[in-house]
Amino acid sequence: MPREKPVCRDMSHNTFGHLFRVTTWGESHGPALGCVVDGCPPGLRFTLEDLQTWLDKRKPGQSRFVTQRREDDLVKVLSGVMPQDDGSMITTGTPISLLIENTDQRSKDYGDIAKRYRPGHADFTYDVKYGIRDYRGGGRSSARETAARVAAGGIARLVVPGVTVRGALVQIGKHKINRANWDWAQVGENPFFAPDPEIVPVWEAYLDEIRKSGSSVGAVVEVVADGVPAGIGAPVYGKLDQDIAANLMSINAVKGVEIGNGFEAASITGEENADEMRIGPDGKPVFLSNHAGGVLGGISTGEPVVARFAIKPTSSILTERRSIDADGNEVDVRTKGRHDPCVGIRAVPVGEAMLACTIADHYLRDRGQTGRLK
Question: What is the C-alpha R_g of the chain?
Answer without folding.
Answer: 22
